[in-house]
Amino acid sequence: MQAVNKTFKERIIDFTLYCRERQFMLGPQETRDAFEIASRGYALDRKLFQYSLKAIFCKRKEHYDRFDEMFDRFWSRYYEEKLEQRKKQVKQLKKEKDVDTVIFLGTEFKIPKKKVEQEEAKQTVGANESLRLRMTDFSKVDVGDKEKFEELAEELFHQMSMRFKRRLESANSGQIDIRNTIRHGISKGGLLLELSRKRKRKEKRKVVFILDVSGSMDTYSYYLLRYILVLKKYFKTLEFFTFSTELTHVTPMLRQNNELEILKEIGKNVQSWSSGTKIGASLTEFLSVYGSKFLSQKHVVVILSDGLETGNVAELKEAVRTIKRKCKTLVWLNPLKGTQGYQPIQTGIVNVMPHLDAFESAHNLDSLLKLEKILMDV
Amino acid sequence: MNKEIDDLIKDFYKHDYILNEALATSVFLLKNLGKPLLLEGSPGVGKTVLAKTLAQHLGTDLIRLQCYEGLDVSTSIYEWNYQKQLLHIKLFEQETDKKTLGKEIFGMDYVLKRPLLQSISADKPVVLLIDEIDRADEEFEAYLLELLSDFQISIPELGTITARTKPLVILTSNRTRELSDALRRRCLYHWVDFPTKIGEIRIISKKLPDIDEQLATQVVTFIHNLRKASLHKPPGIAESLDWAKTLLLMNQKNITDEIVKTTIGSVLKHKDDVEFVTNRSVQEFLVPID
User: Fold this and answer.
1) How many domains are contained in chain A?
2) Per-residue pLDDT tens over the stretch B102-115
3) What is the pTM of this model?
4) pLDDT in tens, B79-90
5) Which residues cross the membrane (chain A) (predicted)?
6) Are residues A190 and A298 in the same domain?
């Protein structure tokens, strides 16, 4: 064991904060473990230190894939950049009299008290920033925010999938399990004090997602696609189709566990990406080819589209009416609904509205998360 | 790298397991920090074998708990030996008062130890493998939290049983479902990926010393190209080894269309996947990869 100097401990804490900002699940225990490996001298070897922190800080594959780059950025380039920035700031601040001492990344800086307060204020807007990003329309994500937005989306979608998973089945009803009742009775001297019951298995949920990937949906389809991939983990029988001018059955491309590979696969195989919109024709094709297999009173159909139909509106109306008749619930998610002043007055939407069970927006992370309730009740 | 880690890699190699530096560091931390290690990865990448090899390396026992849907406390932790309890009641019901009798039959002598309890009551530290935890129910996962953080188990009639010696715990998951954050936070984490081409050739050569280098290279190239294709079940290292073994037994020097058609069953386990490969020329899968 060797004593870890204060400066290095502070660097580790900074790295923990840096990772936490990037949605790593880190608490005091992980920081303590990091101190522990530093005190054992593992930090003297860069690779050993990197792999050790990787094992401690990463909790999921998504973290694991990003960690090495983050480690390099923080402990080399990032650190140097930050140091340079700080040095420049110090030069400017030297002129001012009212100063305070701040230690950042192991370097002592004299910063005026007023400035310190300002810096602190900037640090505390983290929660507000998350909220801002949650409310940002997918089509208006700033290039500078892209990375943070991606990380936030990943974390929120992960949390959502965990919430879905936690809904437990009740085991207090159902038929009496005689075998277990007697078995439990043995410990009570043969008295059957408690009745065991067999858990009735819940019927598997069946959901069909039909995503519009036409040009007008370009800015939304990527996030909606990722949202569906998260739901795939929860719904055991999820069928997924994309359409623009033609319909593609995407479910066979979702076999792999790796989200990135799935996205690559879809990108490679869906030919009609970013082309025109023929909702009616695509839904008619869905009905004729897949309708008998994927439509029943156990199915919920979710159509994700802006409803800007360029084809035959009558065909669209008829297709939606038939789908509604054949499935349990029909939901239409429209990213445009979140736009200020939006009115569902387009011919396509007006015609299908009477057949929908729900018509919701899907333009930002917040609106997607609000859909949980509808999908949980499925 | 650290000398202890180098030694670990060498010793695992002696036991036919090729560790890379990152995985060796995780095993090293498991030994030194005493935290459970969660291994995730596709089936057949060597997660379970790692636990077995660790037990061999330490010269200790491996206690394995295979998880499945419906796994409960009585199968994984403990169960009362009801027959013995009933016998005791019958033998002593005349001589002993009820209160004492009750105390007697709920003692450690009447407990049937299941893998988790066995692992914390062993005389020397053992390796506890909780295999395919993603197959178990969430209720069981929650029960494990106490064991993984404090190395203790609560039995209502007996109280809390604390570990005499801390087992080295390895959990594996194939990611068929997402594990809870609470469980993940109690563990060190390592994603076990498929090995690199050179790494896999080393594994095959180590396990099958008689194999020709050219054949080993062809097997690995073929398998790596298969993994890139969109198959229902991409082959793991175990499948590579099985295939290499089969080809070796058949005295093959090269992979041909004919040989693929007759032996591909040891690599692919799904009808569609077999058709996908047999409908194509073998040369498509022998294209050199980076």
Assistant:
1) 3
2) 778 888 888 899 99
3) 0.61
4) 888 888 888 888
5) 207-225
6) no
Q: Which amino acid is at B23?
A: L
Helix (H) or strand (E) holding A271: none
Domain span at residue A188 reads: 171-202
Is A365 within the bounds of a domain?
A: yes
Q: Which residues of A touch B136 (CB under 8 A)?
A: none
The chain A residues in contact with chain B (CB within 8 A) are 25, 27, 29, 33, 36-37, 40, 42, 45, 47-48, 51-52, 54-56, 58-61, 63-65, 158, 161-162, 165-166, 168, 183, 186-187, 189, 233, 252-253, 255-257, 265
Q: Per the domain annotation, does A153 fall within a domain?
A: no
Interface contact A55-B191, CB threshold 8 A: no
> Helix %, strand %, coil % for chain A, to 5?
60, 10, 30
User: What is the predicted ipTM?
Assistant: 0.83
The reply to whether A195 and A219 lie within a common domain is no
Task: Work out the pLDDT band at B285, boundaries 50, 70, 90.
Answer: confident
Q: Letter for the amino acid at B157?
A: E
Task: Please check whether residue A304 lies inside any domain of the structure.
Answer: yes
Same domain, A90 and A118: yes
CB contact under 8 A, A40 and B32: yes
Residue A235 shares a structural domain with residue A335: yes
Select the residue from A36, A52, A62, A166 to test the B interface by mutation, using most B Cβ atoms within 10 A.
A52
Contact A59, A25 (CB under 8 A): yes
DSSP strand E in B73-178: where? Answer: 78-80, 111-113, 127-131, 152-155, 159-162, 168-173
Same domain, A117 and A81: yes
